[in-house]
Fold each of these.
Amino acid sequence: MKDVIIVGAGFAGSTLANLFANINKKVLVIDKRNHIGGNMYEETRDNGVRVHKYGPHIFHTNDKEVFEYLQKFTSFYFYEHRVIGYIDGEYVPIPFNFKSLELLFPSDKVKLIKEKLLKTYGEQKKVSILDLLNDSDDVIREFGKYVYEKVFVHYTAKQWNVPISEVDSSVINRVPVILGYDDRYFQDTYQAMPKNGYNEIFENMLDNKNIEVKLDTNAKDLLRIDTDNKKIYYDNKEFKGIVIYSGPLDELLEYQYGPLPYRSLDLVFEDRDENYYQPSSVVNYTVSEKFTRITEFKYLSNQVVKDNTTILKEYPLTYDYKNKEHVPYYAIFNDTNLALYKKYYDSVKDIDNFYLCGRLAEYKYYNMDAVVRRALDLFKEIEGVK
Ligand SMILES: Cc1cc2nc3c(=O)[nH]c(=O)nc-3n(C[C@H](O)[C@H](O)[C@H](O)COP(=O)(O)OP(=O)(O)OC[C@H]3O[C@@H](n4cnc5c(N)ncnc54)[C@H](O)[C@@H]3O)c2cc1C
């Protein structure tokens, strides 16, 4: 008899499985895919290059406890992520910084814009593009409009398939403008990649005599949530242990209020007979092309694979829950969708032994560190640990 059933073997599910197993609880982890690791899963191409099957994942955090916790399962190598944007025939740093400014503007303009920005916001500051657009100074506003157009407008339209005005400001604010030459994509204290890839983390998290993993198993075939009587059934018998669900909540509840909207991606991998394809791990196509970005994985995996490389083009598309090829990648935040999610949430929130954790179950954008933090906190909450 199990004490805990966990649906999903991504970071949410695997972290919680590991924590419960360590206090001697018997844990069952179910995943519908044929592998553990959720969206961080990596596979090796025929040419030997290790790729992230569900899109590139770069680890970065300011959360020391999360970073230390993950180091129990793998060793990391120092890696600071740099992204380049292809704008008007130039490769320029993204987030837009002073180097990008110098590459795209004439030198007299550069001097004036820099002076004004530094005077208003201060050196090394990360400024929201929305603040620049609303600035009272004409020069700053003009500069803001340029960056908005070249970095945000088309890219956001490709990514979300709506005009930028309809995209939540939290999404736009993920990419600031940097008033300096720091060309790192993230400014977090800890930036690193797992030396042997992400899979090792999950293998080690789940390698415990108290954990059983069932792959190729859809929770819907085994779990039933009786929302009226606030009971959970596993394999047709009432289950009184703890159930943690990290899959999509609408799917589990039979889409009774309609599907929750997501953006999905068509991920197109290309193996190439050349040493390197592009000057950086990620190039964002912010003004041209149908794909949003190209990732070259050798830069991320730190592998030496001579005369061979693999790239990935990401084509955003509308998620269709009936299409088995589609993966729900990005929740679309707006009042309507959050209200719809709340209906699902309200119908399970009073079930004492049922917990939601993860980007799908909570209909939230969590970075990897944030979802591990959420799992650590949820464990403490359930176990009453201070
Ligand atoms: C394209 C993309 C790029 C990203 N890049 C980064 C990045 O660079 N850095 C970063 O920090 N974060 C990144 N993220 C976020 C990162 O993917 C999430 O933080 C992480 O996946 C959250 O883990 P999770 O366990 O909640 O979800 P997942 O990893 O999605 O795991 C959920 C698991 O549940 C399983 N499941 C779902 N439904 C069922 C069911 N009915 N039955 C059984 N199993 C089920 C799924 O198969 C899956 O394995 C990125 C996200 C995307 C979409």
Amino acid sequence: MQLTINGQTLEVDAEPEMPILWMLRDVLHLTGTKFGCGIAACGACTVQLDGQAVRSCVLPVSAAAGKTITTIEALAKDGVSHPLQTAWIAEQVPQCGYCQSGMLMAAAALLEKNKHPSDADIDAAMTNICRCGSYQRVRAAIHRAALAMRGSAA
Ligand code: FES
Ligand code: FES
């Protein structure tokens, strides 16, 4: 199949029904996207499809035809960290780190739509599960990144 992934159009040798997660990890070796539950419950596998946060463990490759997939590997641009990544470090968000690429991709999709999210907006958008309980720091880091992004846009 021809797919657009992280700004590149690629011929990918994958069955249309293969979950996007396994196409990314096993075929393209983009292992930043993680497997957690496989049933769309945890969010560890979150990528963006045309800018929307989606759970790639339950979405078939065929769903990406004509659309753009963005993974954690493309969150930084031209060697410059995304403001969320900078904020994540400043707030020391990750503990074990396993859920964090999914968290970041969901947070990036949120900030694309909402430049000034409230705590309630963040809670509604961030349904990812973290076994280490990083939720408070995730929220703080999203506020920090949103502030930085509004500042740089001013
Ligand atoms: S691995 Fe996809 S939601 Fe848990
Ligand atoms: S940081 Fe360990 S699961 Fe979230």
